[in-house]
Amino acid sequence: MRRLLLALPFALLPLAVAHAHEDHDHEHGSLGAHEHGVGRVNAVLDGQTLELELESPAMNLVGFEHVATSAADKSKVAAARKQLENPLALFNLPKAAGCVVSSQALNSPLFGDKPQADHDEDDHATDGKGAAAHEHHHDHSEIHAHYQFTCATPTALGNLDLSQVFKTFPATQKIQVQLIGPSGQQGVDATATAATLKF
């Protein structure tokens, strides 16, 4: 139910960005291509509710995509998780908007979550190929964060500022943003030098 706001509007948005990388992502079977240095943000501002969804290859946030086994790798994963657990700072939401986190969820194989493999592939692969697909999926770990905020003064949210995301995770070079707000919907590529988008 918590995905209600994001589910319908983004289903209607053009998928040109996803199709541009279709060849690269053919074996993964997901909409967006897994491209190092590139993350995705979906943002919806509807009344007093702001919903943000961040998806990124783990490489952009922690510097690797395998399950952390060494103390150094575990430390990087813990640090990234701590930063993702503070979305008010990460997304630089203005204090004047009075936003509070009403729900948040972080998912990644690196956090001990099971990878979300393509069930059709797993169900029908009885000759060992399913296991290979599963292994391959692990090599391309994603980190997915979903946040919902309730904002007392949503009119103070004139912009979505992603500059802190770029500063916190410098391996992120570009964020593909799908944004829906009072002025309509837009798809924009944000970079460290152009990190602010208007709602």
Describe what you observe in this structure:
The protein is α+β, with helices and mostly antiparallel strands and 199 residues long. The chain has a domain of 132 residues. It is 32% helix and 29% strand. The chain has nine helices and eight strands. A six-stranded mixed β-sheet has the order 3-4-2-1-6-7. The chain has a two-stranded antiparallel ribbon with strand order 5-8. Strand 6 and strand 7 form a beta hairpin. The longest helix is centred in the middle third of the chain and has 14 residues. About 23% of the residues have low confidence. InterPro entries: ZrgA-like.
Secondary structure: elements and pairs:
Elements: H1 4-12, H2 16-20, H3 22-25, E1 38-46, E2 49-57, H4 58-62, H5 71-84, H6 87-90, E3 99-107, H7 119-124, H8 129-139, E4 142-151, E5 159-161, H9 163-168, E6 174-181, E7 184-190, E8 196-198
Signal peptide: 1-20
InterPro entries: ZrgA-like
Pfam family, one: ZrgA
Order of helices and strands: HHHEEHHHEHHEEHEEE
Distance between the termini: 24 Å
Q: How is the biggest beta sheet arranged? A: 6 strands, mixed
Spans where pLDDT lies below 50 across 5 or more residues? 8-31, 117-138
Considering DSSP H and I runs of 4 or more, what fraction of the residues is helical?
Answer: 25-40%
Number of helices: 9
Short description:
Helix content is 32%, strand content 29%. It has 199 residues and is an alpha+beta fold.
Features:
ZrgA-like, DUF2796 domain-containing protein, 32% helix, single chain, alpha+beta, six-stranded mixed β-sheet, 199 residues, signal, two-stranded antiparallel ribbon
